[in-house]
Amino acid sequence: MDFRFTEEQLMIQDVARRIAQEKIAPSAEHHDRTGEFPLENIRTLGENGLMGIEVPAEYGGAGMDPVSYVLAMVEIAAGDAAHSTIVSVNNSLFCNGILKFGTEAQKQLYVRAIAEGREIGAFALTEPQSGSDATAMRCRAVKQADGSFVINGKKSWITSGPVAKYIVLFAMTDPAKGPKGITAFMVDTTKPGFHRGKTEPKLGIRASATCEIEFQDYVASADEVLGTEGEGFKIAMGVLDAGRIGIASQAIGIARAAYEATLSYVKERKAFGAAIGTFQMTQAKIADMKCKLDAALLLTLRAAWTKGETDKNGGRFSTEAAVAKLTASEAAMWITHQAVQIHGGMGYSKEMPLERYFRDAKITEIYEGTSEIQRLVIARNETGLR
């Protein structure tokens, strides 16, 4: 097995690292404190091909592979997790599904604007009463005689909802069919019938604006259906597989930032006349942090490589994506916890970014499939039992 990266992969990693270090990290505290959406930085990421990493050049993207996406996401997340959340949604949840299931006109209209960073995209699946149980959705799309659909209902926890121009929406078109009665739509948030709720106050990733959205007699034309009618659940699950690789990458970036800060700290901080990095208990924590970080990265790269192969040859990468997300998110939570502990009082202080890493890490165990759901996906795929 060849673990070396290509020149192109290293190039986009370097671009992401430079922007993260020069623009994102220096502004992270401000955006976390104020909750201000980092539009200027997102525009910069878009101008450098990072809002559409796997999007072909003909649709405004960088035309890179899934491994390149992981490498770039890790760097951005190490600078600030909130920025990487926005990048992940645009790349994985928005562009990915349209590229696979959209028409040529949809790709040109929706993907290009997002990939170039001119507009922001969002993904609307979760509802107030249904999180992990996506099939329990109440948002309804009723087909009209002219082929259009009238949509009514609410969606919650929509990342980038307050600022998105376009949204991939999932609504029930035939409740009697259950999952096969769900259809995906492209939504233009400037059209009548679309309403945004208040921006949610969150524990972490505070600069990635999140809100509830509501549809009141919103009309979606026939050419705004993504894929075919009744194919929505299949689209959503496939998109979430890709999204889980993005969140695993985000978790690795957060964990790496906490780990690197801790490495520096244990060499400088002295107690009882010695650097605390010489204490065996501290060394044990450092060793475990390193092992979990490397394991998470390698599993995530495996998932990305597998996705690249399935993009070319067909198939699924659900298990690999779930393993990566579960391992990386729980590693990030554990590593940031230990980082705060090692830093002691300074780790608890807002004067250092450790407490932000700790807060940001938690969401990676929740969104795009909780750790419990990842275990369910893995076990069902391994046993074949439902």
UniProtKB/TrEMBL annotation:
One of its GO terms (molecular function) is flavin adenine dinucleotide binding. InterPro entries: Acyl-CoA_DH_CS (IPR006089), Acyl-CoA_Oxase/DH_mid-dom (IPR006091), Acyl-CoA_Oxase/DH_mid-dom_sf (IPR046373), AcylCo_DH-like_C (IPR036250), AcylCo_DH/oxidase_C (IPR009075), AcylCoA_DH/ox_N (IPR013786), AcylCoA_DH/ox_N_sf (IPR037069), AcylCoA_DH/oxidase_NM_dom_sf (IPR009100). Residues 6-117 form the Acyl-CoA dehydrogenase/oxidase N-terminal domain. Its cofactor is FAD. Keywords: FAD, Flavoprotein, Oxidoreductase. Pfam families: Acyl-CoA_dh_1 (PF00441), Acyl-CoA_dh_M (PF02770), Acyl-CoA_dh_N (PF02771). It comes from the Bacteria. Residues 230-381 form the Acyl-CoA dehydrogenase/oxidase C-terminal domain. It catalyses: 3-sulfinopropanoyl-CoA + H2O = propanoyl-CoA + sulfite + H(+). SUPFAM superfamilies: Acyl-CoA dehydrogenase C-terminal domain-like (SSF47203), Acyl-CoA dehydrogenase NM domain-like (SSF56645). Residues 122-217 form the Acyl-CoA oxidase/dehydrogenase middle domain. Its EC number is 1.3.8.11, 3.13.1.4. Belongs to the acyl-CoA dehydrogenase family. This is 3-sulfinopropanoyl-CoA desulfinase.
